[in-house]
Design a protein that fits this description.
This protein has 253 residues and is an alpha/beta fold. The chain contains eleven helices and seven strands. The structure holds iron/sulfur cluster (SF4).
Length: 253
């Protein structure tokens, strides 16, 4: 967990107001926010509803057992299973700590990610870093991946057949990583992981589960959306606190 000026700087980046005691020194933002009526009203339930969700049905042929990150990386890099291989600069496998407890899942590479070969770079990436650091997770301590490993032209939404072709790679990443918790950012990631058309607003604030390992899954907004809609940063902060509390329950039980 980050403390002091550094964490405050990241909370500022998130657009979260910091609270100062009238009769004392500045309080930590996380605990202080819990005392703010508006946050209490918007906070997820203390005992979230657990929803077991089946593995999405539209997954292509299994890749077969892959027990090595290098082999999986090569399989992704050489993949031509959908038309996105024709327009990509390179595949974007994912980045981070392969021993991480936390897996962050986004939608698909954008233009900068396609050029750099890394997910969540640019302004959205900086905001994601700020969101993670606000709950004590430097970027290098988590693993970050996308539903799609290749950029859809013009950043359009992924097509169902693209998702069905690419999801096995994500499932293989999850099988290797064995994360304790997944944080899905954005509607596209959430809907595809949960195989639902439900709007993001109905998916937030609940504990879901994903895949054969029944990995706990929490949903929040995509940082690119938050850059366009800063008013929802407070809801995202609620989601992050919910995810952090869920993780802490998991590791202490
Ligand atoms: S998006 Fe996924 S399935 Fe399609 S070519 Fe890229 S790696 Fe293969």
């Amino acid at each position: 967990m980050q403390h002091g000026p550094l964490r405050n700087a990241y909370l500022d980046a998130l657009g979260i107001d910091r609270w100062v005691r009238r009769d004392g020194p500045a309080e930590t933002a996380i605990e202080a926010l819990a005392e703010t009526p508006a946050v209490i009203e918007a906070a997820p339930p203390a005992k979230p509803t657990a929803e077991a969700v089946p593995v999405p049905a539209r997954v292509r042929e299994p890749l077969g057992p892959i027990t090595d990150w290098g082999v999986l990386r090569e399989r992704v890099a050489s993949c031509t299973a959908c038309d996105l291989c024709k327009t990509r600069t390179q595949t974007v496998f994912g980045v981070g700590n392969t021993l991480a407890d936390w897996l962050i899942i986004g939608e698909a590479p954008g233009g900068e990610e396609d050029r750099q070969g890394e997910p969540f770079v640019g302004r959205a990436g900086q905001l994601l870093n700020a969101m993670l650091l606000a709950i004590g997770l430097p970027r290098e301590t988590v693993f970050i991946a996308n539903i799609l490993k290749c950029r859809p032209p013009g950043n359009r939404d992924p097509k169902p057949e693209e998702v069905s072709n690419c999801l096995p790679f994500l499932s293989a990443q999850i099988a290797l990583l064995k994360p304790k918790i997944i944080l899905a950012v954005g509607r596209i990631a959430a809907q595809n992981l949960l195989a639902t058309d439900a709007p993001l607003a109905r998916l937030r604030g609940k504990l879901h589960h994903f895949g054969e390992a029944n990995t706990p899954l929490v949903i929040t907004y995509h940082p690119a959306y938050l850059l366009r809609t800063p008013a929802d940063k407070r809801k995202a902060w609620d989601d992050l606190k919910f995810a952090r509390a869920t993780y802490q329950r998991l590791v202490t039980n």
